[in-house]
Specification:
Low-confidence stretches of chain C: none
Number of helices of chain B: 22
Oligomer: heterotrimer
Number of strands of chain C: 0
CATH class of chain C: Mainly Alpha
Structural class of chain B: mainly alpha
Chains: A mainly alpha (982), B mainly alpha (536), C mainly alpha (114)
Distance between the termini of chain C: 46 Å
Helix content of chain C: 55-70%
Low-confidence stretches of chain B: 365-390, 528-536
Strand content of chain C: under 5%
Largest sheet of chain B: 2 strands, antiparallel
Number of domains of chain C: 1
Order of helices and strands of chain C: HHH
Radius of gyration of chain C: 19 Å
Chain lengths: 982, 536, 114
């Protein structure tokens, strides 16, 4: 075999074929922005190399043989990297690489010196790779993969000149339309995979009958066809193609006529063996093709922009191909394949010609172009031949495939009315094809220039013409001696699609006076007639009659904006809120639902889900009274909180106190102690904070209570709150009156002393059994302290609340500066207490230490001790005022926090030395006999760490808050406080 | 197992804590540069550690490679850390994002406020703890740690926008935490244990009369998690908050919602798997429906959002909604795909949050937030030194554009990057051949594909507006800002190329998640009893 | 006892929720601390109620579970108390800052336009 004869195995050849373009694309990106030649050489070399590889591969794909390369990719989901080249894929690969090479050559001269070319060539090569990926994919997912890639690169190439809005809009439209189709294709492929059980192309073919009878056949078909139609710009998705003409002409020639738009029809032919052969196929595909064919031909005739004309003609020709595929017969497939090749050759050359004209004259407007024949005879000849091929003039390749097409339309398919009328319809439509081809030549190259061109045109350099020349030559050769030129290739391609059962077809130029020949003649004469009649009208018309006002693109844009912008914004405003209250409301409601759901599902009473057992502990009147107070104060607080903050604060304090008492009552001394100290500190913090909130005058706000809507809101919230309270009460009661399950806490009671070395079980749990929780807990405290500090560090309160409180203002008249004496007033007022407090300081300190030491055996512990210590500092603030303390304070809170944490970590990590897990308390293996009342458990040191951190954190927060008062006065001197706002 | 192997599992928690503590002991903000170095060092170390842990976890068939009994107390009484594939995977993901964000922050953000690095370390501690712990209440504690740190980071740099969104964020999460407590204690009151594995083993035996109470507890607990996961309609706090935070914070926050998702994955499959007797699949439909609703809502949001940061925030919602819905489908294959998706989308979003700041840099918003911060904190040397120091990289716009395409493709789940493979994995598993496809699977397919399309449209719109409409001069971007983005995206590429092994890991993880009995046995029987020790 | 405590919890929670749903920041913070009380008591209740059975060992030795109130919920409550203390402090500071930056004490940072 040739491949191996040259020491290259066909598999490596395939890999190289895919790899080279992408590698080239990567290299191309690295060049300088103005390196036109270097880029062109690189890209040309890449494309040529790829083409050579394709040619080398030919011997392995003839006669229905296939080159396969499989590599494992994602086995677990049955996805493998599978390159597969059969005859059909080969033809496409040849087109992609061959025309690719010519386009690169052409682009070298087309792109101007100041275009940033690296981007261009890089994307072009990447596109080539992606396109090869599509045709060489052996499994459908991989095909989709490359399919979407081509959309992406087409987007980037259309948007190459993104300064212009046409480029941007065209690019976006193309991307959205084609990748929407791509996603449909993805879905369709998934469905096929579901039916077949594999995405492997061959297995899909094998399961053809299974697919056709499957209930999901139609959805799969529709989705796949949607993918194909969008890509091939078929009605009603054709509108993106004309706008893609904003791309540089080489791109239009390559992507939007020769290759990418062919991907759709490629897919149809590829999957025809699996999906074809049904009425759905016939109707969906064929009708789309027919409409597109007619529409495109009609509209093309009335275009004034050269590229516009070519774009619509491309649409029309793709429609013709789709129609052929849709007719669902082997002969149709043959004609389609043949026409795909022919169209690629003549349309690419026509685009190049258009590009040359644009490049030379500086305009593409047919009305302004005239008599170019004088300036560029060669280009004229090229364009004429190519256009003739497009029109289907004998002795050119277009003619032969056109005849096959006519012949196929004459055949009967389902004998419906449309089917019978088909020959006449297509003949009529083809007249337009002839007409616009004629117009392209006659109006542009003949006649006399009416007005001077922007630039005086002359023949382009040879190398810019050369690609077109080559393609036109191909048109001629294929047109005159098809049998020996294209014949074998076509045979190879068809063998891959139709298998061994290829019906007889002849590529001869002359079949005698057959009906299809008659049709050709009629078409050509009719076309000439049509053109001569419409000629004058065409020069004045803008856009086709009737359809002039239907602009697919405008409809698309409207839809896009409406759905993806207006509608979305509206929906968001409906479905979402940016306000806090609704969110909390939703949260509570969600929790309520989540809580009720199970009872609803299990039936609240049927299975005794929410039954209550007998009460476990005797009722105690004292407890009742305490809680009567608690309940009252809670309700009062809820009622007062808006206008009488201080009152509310006190009431909440009472509720907290009641909580403490019930803790004692319910044998939880540690809790009540902790709750108590926390309570006091929190209250102080709130008091410090209170003064920075704006005053509320009752009647001012009571006004809005009048509004019905607000009353309704209140009622609703009241109901929610009531429901929440009731459910929590019910839940707790239900659990309390149930016997306790066999639970894990027995272990703690048993081992608290034996292995934890403490008699206060709760404390042992905190510092030993579950010390890790305490760890996290103190970390939280530390983090919060940091946050508070960070937030208040340079913060300045709002203007009016920055006033010195009334009781101070009187004394502070005169000295508005911020010197320590400023608080002298306070001092004076509280002189005696201040003295007492200063004496209290050490006392409280001792108490704190006491709590710390006894914690392990009796209620207390590091946290309580720490807070108590902090209370000492608070008292200092109360007595001496902020600045005095800040000047006398010798504590660096952040360092304390750090030290505390380190201590705790250290204790925990010490266990590692004994290869014990983190936080293993060393008490249990400290052999030293017990000394004194203070336990020597490592847990104690841990508690010490807790103590240090708590002191540090609390003091840090206090300073940060209290410091505001100093700031507050400062802000009075000028400086708008709210300027941080915006 | 060896000393290192045994204790390595707790390193992801202790190391950041230690680092944070040292930073504080050194005086917090006064040693910002030392803190920075420490932060980077620890983040990188964490990557290494979590890779080792991942190896261990993947080595053992059952998936549970270590049960670390804190304080050496026997299971199930005290707290245990459990290392299995899922937790190891989350650890690795976290540390990677963290390293990227930390490096990025050095360019300017860590100067915009105080104590960035300690807060960052504590956040990591909280995250890792949440991923490792095997104890319900301990999970609560670590949630609080990471939340507190996240509060700090949300408010970091202050400014009215951040404070207001921060207040919302905090308020909602405070209520959620209370729900968490109610749920946990209720479960304890009925089942009498806090250890997840122990709980799972007890559920089947709960008497019918108590079952509803237990499930109520679980339900309330679930709400708390779903708030974190950002499930509609509990997610309205998220977009504003995520859009307001500084870039590196946003990037690490990409994992924050995943914590909620993680817990759902872990607990729902563990507690209400098929072994749960009458409670099996409790709340599954809600999970599925909620997840889908979240996808839809997030998608609408992405379309409706004008600036990129909101777009990113809503994409976060889509991402977690997708995983929730996929889990709700309760098929092993789908779960595996969802895990793959979780990784890829989190990486992509992490990169995107960083990228946005760079893209928008030329175009103010990001910059004027900084300006505000500077006004607040102006005085002592907190102006961003981007201009003086560091290398500005060439071809910035090209690189930014390329990275943007990368992010867009990953987030929209289009070829050629990991997002596409993830979606394919989920969908092809949901449509497994042979069996009839349930309706919700079809709905899932439609929603997923449409959301991808919408993401594409939104991304294109934003990208065109930023890169194409205005021919703007390249912003000054420094290597340490570009590198993290590039690395995260390259990881997505790697995940695509190496999809085979990655997917195998994910499927294995999914299988063990759907086999709760292995987990229970693994945890309850892993550990030997407490060694006999001296003492009185 | 149970019924009293249950009622207490219910009322605390109810008023807490009500306040948490109010528009003024101060109301919200007060509401949250009421809620915190309710939840703490709820946690304690989950260990069932015992009087005069503080979980402090009298004898230095192995304790008998039946003799003591369930210590675990108490430990949990302690942790919860500390954490809610911290978060309350934080929230307080945040509302002050919000007030300072936006000039209003409405939870949304701007007066509602009814």
């Amino acid at each position: 075999m040739v491949g191996q004869g040259m020491g290259v195995s066909p598999e490596t050849l395939l890999i190289a074929l895919i790899a080279i373009p992408f590698a080239g694309s990567f290299l191309a990106m690295l060049f300088r922005a103005n390196a036109r030649n270097a880029e062109a050489y690189l890209a040309g070399a890449v494309a040529l190399a790829a083409f050579v590889l394709v040619v080398m591969a030919y011997p392995q794909v003839t006669g229905g043989s296939v080159i396969r390369f499989k590599a494992a990719w994602v086995q677990d989901i049955g996805l493998e990297f599978y390159l597969r080249m059969d005859g059909f894929a080969w033809v496409f690969a040849a087109l992609i690489t061959g025309i690719g090479f010519l386009v690169v050559l052409y682009a070298r001269y087309y792109m101007s010196a100041d275009d940033p070319v690296p981007r261009f060539f890089s994307f072009l090569l990447a596109f080539m790779g992606a396109m090869l990926g599509i045709v060489l994919s052996g499994n459908l997912i991989q095909l989709v993969f490359f399919w979407e890639l081509t959309s992406l690169f087409s987007f980037l190439l259309i948007g190459y000149w993104h300064q212009t809005s046409q480029a941007r809009d065209g690019a976006r439209m193309a991307l959205i339309v084609t990748s929407t189709g791509g996603l449909c294709l993805f879905a369709g492929v998934l469905v096929i995979g579901h039916i077949v059980g594999s995405y492997d192309l061959e297995q899909v073919f094998a399961a053809a009958t299974k697919i056709r009878v499957h209930p999901l056949y139609v959805p799969a078909l529709v989705l796949v066809v949607l993918g194909a139609l969008t890509k091939s710009a078929q009605f009603p998705f054709h509108f993106w193609l004309p706008h893609a003409m904003a791309a540089p002409t080489p791109v239009s020639a390559y992507l939007h006529s020769a290759t990418m738009v062919k991907a759709g029809v490629f897919l149809l032919v590829r999957l025809w063996p699996a999906l074809g052969g049904t009425n759905e196929w016939l109707w969906i595909v064929a009708s789309a093709g027919l409409i597109t064919f007619m529409l495109g031909a009609f509209v093309a005739l009335f275009q004034q922009d050269l590229k516009g004309l070519l774009a619509y003609s491309t649409i029309s020709h793709l429609g013709l191909i789709t129609l052929l595929i849709g007719l669902d017969t082997p002969l149709g497939i043959i004609a389609a394949t043949f026409h795909i090749i022919n169209h690629a050759t003549f349309k690419a050359s026509l685009f190049m010609a258009a590009g040359i004209i644009d490049h030379e004259t500086g305009t593409r407007d047919i009305r302004r172009l005239n008599g170019l024949r004088r300036f560029m005879p060669i280009t004229t000849t090229l364009a004429m031949v190519a256009a003739a091929a497009m029109a289907g003039v004998p002795l050119l390749n277009g003619f032969i495939s056109k005849e096959m097409f006519f012949a196929e339309t004459i055949e009967l398919h389902d004998n419906s009315l449309v089917d019978q009328a088909l020959p006449y319809i297509v003949t009529f439509a083809s007249m337009f094809t002839v007409a616009y081809s004629l117009r392209f030549i006659r109006d542009v190259f003949f006649g006399v220039p009416t007005q001077p061109f922007p630039r005086t045109p002359h023949e382009p350099p040879f190398l810019m013409r050369f690609p077109a020349e080559l393609l036109v030559l191909a048109c001629l050769v294929v047109g005159i001696i098809p049998g020996i030129t294209i014949g074998p290739l076509l045979q190879t391609a068809l063998h891959a699609v139709l298998g061994d059962s290829i019906p007889h077809y002849s590529l001869a130029v002359w079949h005698g006076f057959t009906p299809e020949f008659l049709m050709s003649i009629v078409t050509i004469l009719g076309g000439i007639g049509l053109y001569t009649i419409l000629r004058t009208y065409l020069l004045t018309a803008d856009g086709p009659p009737l359809l002039r006002h239907i602009k697919g693109q405008r409809i698309f844009e409207r839809l896009l904006v409406t759905i993806s912008w207006r509608f979305a914004r509206w929906l968001e405003s409906v479905l979402a809120t940016r306000r806090l209250q609704p969110q909390l409301r939703l949260l509570v409601i969600a929790a309520l639902i989540a809580g009720f759901m199970p009872f609803y599902l299990h039936g609240t009473y049927t299975q005794g889900a929410l039954t209550f057992g007998p009460r476990q502990t005797a009722f105690d009147i004292g407890f009742g009274i305490v809680w009567a107070v608690g309940i009252a104060s809670a309700l009062a607080a809820a009622y007062q909180a808006k206008f009488h903050r201080l009152a509310a604060l006190i009431l909440v304090g009472v509720a907290g106190l009641v909580t403490c008492i019930s803790f004692v009552w319910l044998s939880a001394p540690d809790l009540s102690l902790t709750q108590l100290v926390v309570e006091s500190v929190t209250t102080v913090l709130l008091l410090l904070g209170l003064r920075w909130l704006p005053k509320r005058i009752q009647n001012f706000d009571a006004a809005d209570a009048g509004f019905g809507i607000i009353r309704w809101h209140r009622i609703r919230d009241l109901m929610i709150a009531a429901a929440a309270g009731a459910s929590l009460a019910a839940l707790s009661y239900a659990v309390m009156t149930r016997p306790q399950p066999q639970n894990i806490s027995g272990f703690f009671v048993e081992n608290a002393y034996k292995q934890g070395g403490g008699t206060n079980i709760v404390n042992v749990i905190l510092v030993d059994f579950r010390a890790f929780d305490t760890f996290g807990e103190i970390t939280v405290l530390g983090i919060v302290a940091l946050t508070v500090y960070g937030l208040l560090r340079r913060f300045r309160p709002a203007a009016e609340s920055a006033q010195v409180p009334e009781q101070q203002r009187s004394r502070n008249e005169g000295n508005e500066d911020t010197t320590p004496q400023k608080d002298s007033g306070v001092k004076g007022a509280l002189a005696i207490p201040a003295l007492m407090v200063s004496m209290l300081f050490p006392v409280i300190g001792v108490v704190a230490i006491y709590f710390l030491l006894r914690g392990h055996d009796l209620p207390g512990g590091g946290f309580v001790a720490g807070i108590t210590m902090a209370v000492a500092f608070i008292l200092q603030y109360m007595a001496h005022g902020t600045e005095w303390v800040e000047s006398h304070l010798r504590v660096l809170p952040i360092r304390w926090m750090g030290a505390g944490l380190l201590l705790a970590v250290g204790v925990g990590a010490a266990a590692w030395l004994f290869d014990m897990p983190f936080l293993t308390s060393s008490f249990s293996y400290a052999e030293v006999p017990w000394i004194g009342a203070v336990p020597l458990a490592s847990a104690f040191i841990f508690d010490l760490g807790v103590f240090a951190l708590v002191v540090g954190a609390t003091v840090l927060m206090l300073i940060a808050l209290a410091h505001q008062s100093v700031r507050g006065h400062r802000t009075q001197r000028g400086r708008a406080p709210n300027s941080e706002g915006a | 197992m060896s000393w290192a192997e045994n204790h390595l599992v707790i390193a992801p928690i202790v190391l950041p804590l230690f680092a944070g503590a040292v930073m504080l002991a050194l005086g917090g903000e006064r040693r910002r540069n030392i803190n920075a170095i420490l932060n980077i060092a620890v983040s990188l170390a964490l990557i290494a550690i979590s890779i080792m842990l991942l190896r261990d976890a993947d080595a053992v068939p059952g998936g549970i490679s270590n049960v670390y009994r804190l304080g050496d107390w026997p299971v199930p009484f005290a707290i245990v850390l459990v290392l299995d594939r899922l937790s190891a995977m989350m650890l690795l993901l976290t540390s990677v994002l963290a390293a990227a964000a930390a490096v990025f922050s050095l360019a300017r953000w860590h100067r915009a406020g105080v104590n960035f690095h300690p807060l960052f370390q504590f956040l990591l501690m909280g995250l890792n703890g949440a991923f490792l712990t095997g104890d319900l209440f301990n999970l609560f504690v670590f949630f609080e740690v990471l939340l507190a740190a996240s509060y700090g980071l949300v408010l970091y740099g202050s400014g009215s926008v951040r404070v207001m969104t921060g207040m919302q964020y905090i308020a909602v999460n405070l209520v959620a935490s209370l729900l968490f407590l109610i749920g946990v204690s209720l479960i304890y009151g009925i089942a009498g244990t806090l250890n997840m594995a122990d709980l799972a083993s007890r559920i089947a035996a709960i008497p019918a009369s108590d079952r509803a109470l237990l499930e109520a507890g679980a339900g309330i607990l679930g709400i708390a998690f779903l708030v974190k996961a950002g499930m509609w309609p509990l997610c309205f706090w998220l977009p504003g908050t995520y859009a307001a935070v500084p870039a590196p914070v946003g990037s690490i926050f990409a994992i924050l919602t995943k914590v909620g998702v993680y817990v759902v994955l872990r607990l729902w499959l563990l507690l209400f798997g098929d072994g749960a007797g009458a409670s099996a699949q409790f709340g599954g439909e809600l999970l599925l429906a909620g997840g889908m609703a979240t996808i839809v809502f997030g998608t609408i949001g992405t379309l409706a959002s004008q600036d990129m940061s909101r777009l990113a925030a809503f994409s976060v919602l889509v991402s977690s909604g997708t995983v929730l819905a996929a889990v709700g489908l309760a098929q092993t294959g789908v779960t595996g795909g969802a895990l793959f998706y979780l990784i890829s989308s989190t990486l992509g979003l992490g990169a995107f949050f960083l990228l946005i700041e760079l893209i928008e840099r030329g175009r103010e918003p990001g910059a004027d937030v900084l300006a505000v911060t500077r006004e607040l904190y102006g005085e002592e040397g907190e102006e961003d030194g981007a201009e003086e120091t560091g290398i500005a990289i060439p071809a910035t716009i090209a690189l930014l554009g390329l990275s943007f395409i990368g992010c867009a493709v990953v987030i929209a789940g289009l070829p050629p990057l990991s997002g596409f493979i993830a979606k394919f994995a989920m969908l092809s598993a949901a449509l497994q051949p042979g069996a009839a496809v349930p309706t919700q699977a079809w709905v899932f397919l439609v929603i997923l594909i449409l959301s991808g399309l919408a993401a594409l449209i939104a991304m294109t719109r934003a990208g065109i507006r930023v890169f194409w409409v205005s021919e703007r001069e390249a912003p000054r971007v420094r290597l340490i800002e570009m590198a993290p983005v590039a690395v995260l995206l390259l990881l997505c590429v790697l995940q695509t190329v190496q999809a085979g092994p990655v997917m195998r890991f994910m499927q294995a993880t999914a299988q063990s998640l759907h086999a709760p009995h292995d987990y229970m046995r693994g945890v309850l029987e892993f550990s030997s009893a407490r060694k006999p020790a001296g003492g009185t | 006892m149970e019924i009293v405590l249950a009622l207490g919890i219910g009322v605390l929670a109810g008023s807490g929720v009500w306040l948490a749903l109010r528009p003024r920041t101060f109301q919200v913070i007060i509401g949250l601390s009421l809620l915190a009380y309710a939840v703490n008591l709820f946690i304690l209740a989950m260990g069932r109620l015992r009087t005069d059975a503080a979980p402090v060992l009298m004898a230095k030795g192995m304790g008998v579970p039946a003799e003591f109130a369930d210590p675990l919920p108490q430990a949990l409550v302690l942790t919860a108390i500390v954490i809610s203390f911290a978060t309350t402090a934080l929230f307080l500071v945040v509302i002050i800052a919000a007030r300072g930056l936006t000039g209003t004490d409405h939870v949304d940072g701007r007066e509602p336009d009814v």
